[in-house]
Design brief:
two-stranded antiparallel sheet, globular
Length: 466
């Protein structure tokens, strides 16, 4: 339309036919299904843009879950529904003033059946934001504003009479300045103040970054910031006697981009304080909670992308190294958490073959082993899984300029990857805790898709996104 536009999409997924064709290591009663959609309305005003956005999704699955601690399987029946709406405005007024404001609302509901028991939780969340920006001069730009978050969470267990939950209101104010010392040197400095009424706590967090442009295509930057967040929903629904969890970030970054090649590298250090700890096997009603947890993370990230050096070939390589330890949750001491792999490497390639009107892709992913706790050993979290390896292939065939047939296969070598182990709660007659490997539901994943782009520009397609 002349001053407005309306876009929408919807998607329905049912994996039942796929799981018949490709057997899964899961005892399904009802395979995963989902229905989702989005709608966006935009209206162009004289000095700004108004946007209204809405999205929903609903998903279902029902399966019988095996456990080493139970002879019988546990039936898990999940129904999840989400709704999200926001309205926003961005425009200018007066002399070099910019206004950004918006209001959003989210509704999430989960119904989780565990055999004959039911867990039903609902979260209502809203967010109001206002930001003003003023260009004082070519060398100085000021921004300031405020946020307000409100959350209401309720959870009902069929085997417990009382509900659990909480009401949270968070008010925040912030200000920041962009300072341009020269064409090569710039700095951003700011501060954020937050009050959380549920935790009865007010905090102030300074943040700053500085960037130096080495050349037309490259720059160095350094950032420091203090960040905090309320403990997770899993803890707040049982107990609100917490303080915020905190982190200090120090990040040094270098980036090069000439339009055809991109190189980024980053080193960082993060210090964690006031993390939540508890003294039971999992977070629950009778846990004793505190904020005595702590930890750190330091590491290196490297990324290289090139689509110029070899004709018709585009590839990108990434590597990350992380050294981290935490003493939080129910940990006995400061150790590397089970979700962390110290070394992560991947390479992705796409080669265009003119005669075939095709883009052929090959990728490889590697993660070093992740820690796990073996109760048969004296030391806590001293086990480590074997390395993860995955070689995948894809083929995109251009049926016409805007129609593409796409096929992909993951883990074509059939590598037997292990993500961790589930141990028995009690030892057997020989005093040994038996275990069961946590593995993928299938060795490989197959995907076949047809992509049809409809647009005014008859050359548009999805080839670069596949």
């Amino acid at each position: 339309m002349e001053k407005s536009s309306l876009t929408f999409n919807t998607a329905y997924i049912d994996l039942a036919p796929y799981q018949v064709a490709i057997p899964q290591n899961v005892d399904w009663n009802k395979a995963f299904q989902s229905l989702s959609g989005e709608v966006v309305y935009r209206y162009e005003l004289e000095r700004g843009l108004f946007k209204l956005y809405a999205a929903f999704d609903a998903s279902r699955f029902d399966l019988n879950q095996e456990s080493i601690n139970s002879v019988a399987k546990t039936r898990v029946d999940l129904k999840n529904n989400n709704l999200y709406v926001n309205a926003s405005y961005k425009g200018s007024f007066g002399s070099n003033w910019q206004l950004t404001t918006g209001l959003s609302y989210g509704l999430g509901n989960n119904k989780i059946g565990l055999d004959n028991q039911l867990i039903d939780n609902t979260e209502h969340a809203s967010h109001l934001k206002l930001k003003l920006r003023k260009s004082i001069s070519d060398r100085l730009k000021l921004s300031f504003g405020a946020d307000y978050f409100t959350t209401k969470f309720d959870e009902k267990y069929s085997f417990i009479t009382n509900k659990t939950g909480y009401n949270s209101n968070i008010a925040a104010a912030f200000t920041e300045a962009d300072i341009f010392f020269s064409k090569k040197l710039a700095m951003k400095v700011g501060v954020r103040a937050v009050n959380n009424d549920l935790l009865d706590e007010t905090s102030i967090s300074p943040r700053t970054s500085i960037a130096y442009k080495v050349s037309k295509s490259s720059q160095f930057s350094f950032a420091y910031g203090e960040f905090e967040q309320a403990p997770r929903q899993d803890y707040l629904k049982f107990n609100s006697d917490f303080s915020n969890e905190r982190a200090s970030h120090y990040i040094l970054n270098y980036q090069y981009n000439d339009g055809k090649r991109t190189f980024r590298t980053e080193v960082y250090f993060k210090d964690y304080q006031d993390l939540v700890k508890y003294d039971t096997q999992i977070a629950q009603f009778d846990s004793n909670y505190n904020n005595n947890g702590f930890g750190f993370a330091k590491g290196l990230d490297v990324f290289w992308r090139d689509n110029q050096s070899v004709k018709n070939l585009e590839y990108w390589v990434s590597y990350s190294y992380i050294d981290t330890k935490r003493d939080y949750k129910n940990y006995e001491t400061e150790v590397t958490p089970s979700f962390v792999a110290k070394n992560n490497f991947s390479i992705v390639t796409k080669y265009w073959i003119d005669d075939w009107k095709s883009s052929v892709g090959l990728s490889y992913s590697f993660n070093s082993g992740r820690p796990y706790d073996d109760p048969n050993e004296m030391d806590f979290m001293n086990g480590k899984t074997k390395n993860y390896n995955n070689v995948s292939m894809s083929w995109a065939y251009l049926l016409s300029q805007q129609k593409i047939l796409f096929i992909s296969i993951s883990n074509i070598l059939g590598t037997e990857n292990v993500f961790g182990y589930e141990y028995a709660n009690s030892p057997d007659s020989n005093g040994v805790f038996q275990r069961k490997a946590i593995i993928p539901t299938a060795d490989r994943f197959f995907f076949v898709g047809f992509f049809w782009t409809i647009s005014d520009n008859k050359k548009d397609n999805q080839l670069n996104n596949l």
